[in-house]
Specification:
The protein is an alpha/beta fold. It has a single domain, classed as Rossmann fold (3-Layer(aba) Sandwich), CATH 3.40.50. The chain is about 40% helix and about 20% strand. A seven-stranded mixed beta sheet has the order 3-2-1-4-5-7-6, sandwiched between helices. β1, α4 and β2 form a beta-alpha-beta unit. α3 packs parallel to α4. The longest helix is centred in the N-terminal third of the chain and has 15 residues. It is globular, with a radius of gyration of 16 Å. The termini are far apart. Bound molecules: S-adenosylmethionine. The site of S-adenosylmethionine (SAM) has 19 residues, from α4 and β2.
Length: about 210
């Protein structure tokens, strides 16, 4: 993934943020052993941001779309209030199995439930209210996930959507690839939606924070 900020800024920000816990570093290392897509993990900086958002919002019901190997689920689980729960949706059975192993090795296993299947199918069975949702799966379905989650979201609830700068490609008008177009349309859709307020943060690959007003 390209650095979207000045060279070295990301490393500087990381060096001046709370370190990533050792068990999450181990999850990243283990993921690299079986997958050449380990960069899909949100990583140290965004992971600590996600944890802090959960600590601030104090959601009882968290929904995640795109579990991969469980890293971001666990960042959120660390900060859940007593009794808080995360439902995380994953289509790939291997990813879900490895995530479950990673989650089971932590003290947070009773806080995270993985549901295997296409997220659009699983979303039909998710019960309201959701207090906080994190969208980080296939980009071409972002608007569908957003539209499915928004009615489930409690008034005042939040959604965070990852990769909304898509390596900076969103600004390249010659790039008409499906993922780039989908992310561009998602950003336009959300920023023009008067049901919500949003702010596009330039953290890592871009994180759209959305507040249901
Ligand atoms: C970017 S990774 C998620 C990374 C994870 N949030 C983290 O930071 O640790 C995206 C995940 O979404 C899953 N995925 C892709 N399409 C999906 C779909 N239609 N339904 C559910 N999960 C999907 C992929 O298999 C992959 O594991």
């Amino acid at each position: 993934m390209r650095e979207l900020t000045l060279p070295g800024i990301e490393a500087y920000a990381q060096a001046h943020s709370t370190p990533e816990p050792g068990y999450l570093r181990a999850i990243q290392a283990n993921t690299r052993k079986f997958s050449d897509e380990a960069q899909m993990i949100i990583g140290h900086l965004e992971g600590r941001l996600l944890k802090m958002l959960v600590a601030m919002i104090k959601p009882m019901h968290v929904l995640e779309v795109g579990t991969f190997t469980g890293y971001s689920s666990l960042c959120m689980a660390e900060a859940l209030p007593e009794g808080g729960r995360i439902v995380t949706l994953e289509v790939n059975e291997t990813h879900a199995r490895i995530a479950q192993e990673h989650i089971d090795a932590t003290p947070y296993a009773d806080r995270v439930e993985i549901r295997v299947g296409h997220a659009m199918d699983s979303l039909a069975h998710v019960r309201a209210p959701i207090d906080f949702a994190f969208i980080d799966a296939d980009k071409t379905n972002y608007i569908r996930y957003y539209e499915a989650i928004l009615p489930l979201l409690a008034p005042g609830g939040f959604i965070a959507a990852d990769n909304v700068l898509w390596d900076g490609q969103v600004m390249d008008s010659d790039d008409e690839s499906a993922d780039t177009v989908a992310i561009r349309e998602f950003n336009r859709h959300v920023s023009r939606d008067d049901r919500v307020e949003c702010v596009l943060l330039t953290v890592r690959d871009g994180l759209m924070l959305i507040h249901k007003t």
